[in-house]
Specification:
transmembrane; MT1774/Rv1733c-like; alpha+beta; single chain; 3 helices; transmembrane helix; 5-stranded antiparallel sheet; membrane; rod-shaped
Length: 194
């Protein structure tokens, strides 16, 4: 019996009630629509964002390729940088041979601690320009999921804010209506009965 009372309390705005106002029904539909948009729209937005991010990361992995290069300058640790530094990569000048046999030189991020002439791996894009290493499939999956979750939460937040603004407008309308009704009823209460 207690469960039916709880359901009745939750659905009070839709019950036929002499105290129910039109604004109460409108507010109930706004709340229902807001939660549907948050759950369905937020989920779809999150899934679409995660899928798009994953496709973008897959395209990066497909377009970029690793080549062997030779260091032109040393990346040995500089004075003042301790061994426990979080930066294990530095920018250095490297030389590599392209697929057509031509030699190129440029600056790339390489591991710290190598001397001139050491062999390192650098990454090139489809135009044979130096670029960063693409994310691994697992890292891309985690990042795509994070982006999708953030997009879903952001969409849900916007939908919630829109619903709150609509409910605020209804409240303002009700306050104005109550003010007009009080202006009519208030003078009758002030009359003295003797």
């Amino acid at each position: 019996m207690r469960r039916t009372e709880r359901v009745r309390q939750l659905l009070w705005r839709w019950r036929n009630n002499p105290l129910r106002r039109h604004d109460d029904v409108v507010e109930a539909w706004i709340v229902l629509a807001m939660w549907l948009v948050i759950t369905i729209g937020g989920t779809l937005t999150g899934l679409l964002t995660a899928h798009a991010a994953d496709a973008s990361f897959a395209r990066l992995r497909h377009e970029r390729h690793a080549v062997r290069a030779v260091l032109v300058e040393s990346t040995a640790r500089r004075v003042g940088i301790g061994a426990d530094t979080p930066y294990d990569r530095v920018r250095a000048t490297v030389r590599w041979t392209a697929a057509d046999g031509s030699t190129h030189t440029g600056r790339a991020l390489v591991d710290d601690g190598y001397r001139v002439g050491s062999k390192v791996v650098v990454w090139l894009n489809s135009k044979e320009h130096l670029t960063t290493e693409p994310p691994t499939a697992s890292a891309a999956g985690v990042e795509a999921a994070s982006l999708g979750a953030a997009a879903g939460v952001a969409f849900g937040g916007l939908a919630f804010a829109a619903g709150r603004v609509a409910r605020w407008r209804l409240d303002q309308r009700r306050y104005d209506q109550w003010g007009r009704e009080w202006d009519q009823a208030g003078p009758q209460w002030r009359r003295k009965t003797t």
